[in-house]
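User: Can you predict the 3D structure of Hemerythrin? Sequence below.
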Amino acid sequence: MNLDKYRREHADIIGHVSTLRTLCAHGIADEAAAIAREVIAMSSVIKLHLSVEDRYLYPSMQQAAPALAAKARLYQEEMKDISAQYGQFSRRWNDAQSIAEQPEAFRADANRVLKLLFDRIGRENRDFYPMVEAA
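Assistant: Sure. Here are the predicted C-alpha cells for Hemerythrin:
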C-alpha cells in the first residue's frame, strides 16, 4: 500500500503546527486573527485525513496479518479520543476574539492537544506505516 498521501498530509499538519508556534511566539493576542485562520485551515486538513484513514486505511488493515490488524484496531480506537480532543480545541479556538481574550488558556490547550497530535503522527510515521508497507 502506498502511504505517500498520508505522509504528505502529516507533513502539512506539522507545518500548520509550526506556523501556530511561530504566530504564538509573536504574541498570541496580537496574532489572534492569524492564529484563528491557521486553526481553521489545519482543521480542514485533519478532518479530511482522519476521514480517509477511518474509511479506508484502518478497515483495509483488518484483512492483514493478525499483528497488523490488531495494531490498526488499536490506532483507530486511540484516534477517536485524539480526534474528539482536537475537535473541542478547534471549536473553542477558531475565533480570534476568544483567542485574544484568553491567550494563556489558548496556549495551554494548544500545547496539550497539539502535542497529542504531534506524538501520534510521529508514531504512525515511525511504527505503523512501515508495518503497513511491509505487509
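The chain has five helices and no strands. The chain has one domain: 4-134.
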